[in-house]
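Long-time lurker, first post. I've been practising inverse folding by hand and with some scripts of my own, and I keep getting stuck on stretches where the structure tokens seem ambiguous. Below is the full token string for one chain I'm working on. Before anyone asks, I'm not after the true native sequence, just a reasonable design that respects the backbone. If someone could post their per-position residues I'd love to compare against what I wrote down in my notebook.
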């Protein structure tokens, strides 16, 4: 996987590490954030060099440590632990700088201009017209939106693209189903749910009467030919779907810059196919047009079927060229399930064979599938969990918990919405995106442990302390002095500062790996670390010489927790 810009701090550290035959940039690409902040600010896994140096990782780490410490360096400590080299920077100096930076920058803390002038296209969510917006769409939707926000924070210009599934024979099937079993009143009342109901009925009936499939193909041909009645129904299905999913996107706080879907590229495939023909890349196989990729260990990329119909690959090729021409992207991401790994390998290889150097800027961001506890989901069989229902149920449960814990809470309904919706988003972004998720209401609605409500409640605690502490501008009008910062001494304070310092690096790493869960896990760790500090130290009634620094720490934690939650798409109530 190609990296974006490497964290400057990693490059600085790599400059002090000398490994024969390995350049600074490669070493920097191996430097990582340790899973536990107490281990250090950064770590270098030395097993990367074991084969080349013919030594154990532990021996390499010890040798590198001795070499670094023999020369002037900026580290407060360098430790070799189990084959890792752990680096720490000066703590007292760090605390003052980190708190001053957060007080000055507020929500801009962790931002960067590294992406200035660079556009990143992000193809995500990509719902299907006239089909349910179900829990299976959750991962693509929230991963893509989180990456969008992170790119924006780091100075890039992201372009969010909802590549609608708005073309294909399923629309012919839906027209047949609507004409036979559609109910105008039910459609007004139930919307896409009614379309799903009759779509499921079509497939059940078609098993008994295969002639329905021919009728569906005929209606789709009418859409292609511009038949007025066919287009009227097609447009109705599309506008109805976009209206309904728009409500879900609004609850998730997600907007798109483009809704250009498959239909948009109908008149843009011709030039790409012509060019492929001229380049001699297309061959015929049983009447179909393919690009033979056997030389690269892949099955053929099918572009035109024997009956003249185009496919996903044809449209995706046209879309890739359109996006390059329109946006001149630095990167173009496709947030699509890992089942499509081969499709994107084929797509990128075809573009490479066409002589386009920007094929290397195309990135498939795969994620695991969501299944029900009793199996996978299928729209045809009517076996789906609607995302709207999941959000509603989560909000309902959040409301009950809030009522039990704080019956006098103002705006309880608004808080329940943030907590409920946030818990669903957080669930989807808690683990590495490539992992399969087995959907269960118990997991999604669990309000204990590594959840959104835990982080949200920690932030609300910080907010409460800040309200009692007084006006932030007045409190921190003067910089914190060296003696005041000693009020943060101790393991708990050191750990919180170390985590706060890493925020920008965490976002950079999440973008390097296209992995929003890195931010999710980070804010869980920060919330836990702060709660340990809170239990071990007095804050509002601390000794006068320590009070201001400790309040500054509370403020800094709140700023970073809120911004971390915002980046992954979770609200932060002031009270809970």
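-- Answer (accepted) --
I ran through it position by position. Result:
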């Amino acid at each position: 996987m190609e990296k974006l810009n490497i964290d400057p701090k990693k490059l600085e550290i790599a400059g002090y590490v000398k490994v024969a035959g390995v350049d600074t940039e490669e070493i920097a690409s191996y430097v990582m954030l340790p899973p536990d902040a107490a281990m250090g600010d950064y770590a270098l896994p030395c097993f990367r060099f074991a084969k080349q140096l013919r030594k154990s990782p532990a021996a390499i780490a010890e040798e590198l440590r001795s070499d670094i410490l023999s020369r002037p360096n900026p580290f407060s400590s360098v430790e070799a632990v189990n084959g890792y080299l752990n680096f720490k920077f000066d703590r007292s100096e760090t605390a003052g700088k980190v708190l001053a930076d957060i007080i000055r920058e507020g929500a801009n803390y962790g931002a960067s201009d590294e992406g200035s002038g660079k556009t990143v296209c992000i193809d995500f969510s990509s719902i299907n017209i006239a089909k349910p917006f179900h829990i299976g769409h959750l991962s693509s939707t929230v991963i893509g939106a989180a990456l969008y926000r992170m790119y924006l924070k780091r100075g890039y210009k992201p372009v969010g693209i909802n590549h609608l599934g708005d073309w294909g024979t399923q629309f012919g099937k839906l027209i047949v189903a609507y004409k036979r079993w559609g109910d105008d009143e039910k459609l007004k009342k139930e919307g896409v749910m009614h379309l799903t109901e009759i779509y499921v009925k079509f497939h059940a009936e078609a098993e008994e009467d295969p002639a329905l499939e021919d009728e569906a193909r005929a209606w789709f041909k009418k859409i292609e030919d511009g038949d007025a009645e066919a287009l009227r129904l097609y447009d109705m299905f599309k506008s109805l779907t976009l209206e309904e999913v728009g409500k879900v996107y609004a609850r998730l706080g997600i907007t798109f810059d483009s809704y250009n879907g498959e239909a948009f590229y109908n008149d843009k495939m011709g030039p790409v196919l012509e060019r492929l023909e001229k380049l001699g890349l297309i061959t015929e196989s049983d009447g179909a047009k393919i690009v033979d990729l056997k030389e690269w260990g892949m099955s053929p990329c099918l572009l035109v079927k024997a009956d003249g119909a185009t496919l996903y690959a044809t449209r995706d090729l046209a879309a890739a060229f359109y996006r390059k021409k329109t946006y001149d992207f630095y990167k173009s991401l496709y947030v699509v399930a890992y089942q499509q790994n081969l499709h994107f390998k084929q797509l990128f290889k075809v573009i490479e064979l066409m002589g386009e150097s920007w094929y290397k800027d195309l990135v498939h961001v795969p994620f695991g599938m969501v299944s029900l506890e009793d199996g996978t989901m299928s729209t045809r069989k009517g076996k789906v969990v609607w995302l709207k229902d999941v959000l509603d149920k989560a909000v309902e449960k959040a409301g009950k918990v809030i009522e039990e814990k704080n019956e006098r809470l103002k705006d309880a309904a608004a808080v329940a919405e943030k907590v409920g919706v946030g818990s669903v988003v957080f669930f989807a972004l808690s683990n590495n995106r490539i992992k399969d998720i087995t959907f269960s209401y118990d997991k999604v609605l669990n309000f204990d442990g590594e959840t959104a409500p835990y982080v949200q409640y920690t932030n609300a605690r910080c907010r409460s302390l800040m309200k009692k502490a007084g006006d932030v501008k007045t409190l921190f009008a003067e910089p914190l002095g060296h003696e005041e910062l000693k009020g943060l001494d101790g393991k708990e304070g050191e750990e919180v500062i170390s985590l706060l310092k890493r925020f920008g690096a965490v976002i950079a790493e999440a973008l390097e790996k296209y992995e929003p869960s890195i931010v999710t896990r980070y804010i869980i760790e920060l919330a836990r670390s702060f709660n340990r500090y809170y239990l071990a130290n007095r804050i509002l009634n601390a000794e006068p010489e320590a009070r201001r620094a400790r309040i500054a720490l509370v403020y800094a934690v709140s700023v970073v927790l809120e911004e971390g939650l915002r980046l992954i798409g979770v609200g932060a109530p002031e009270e809970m």
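A couple of notes from the structure itself: The CA atoms of residues 234 and 563 lie 41 Å apart. The mean pLDDT is 92. Happy to go over any region you disagree with.
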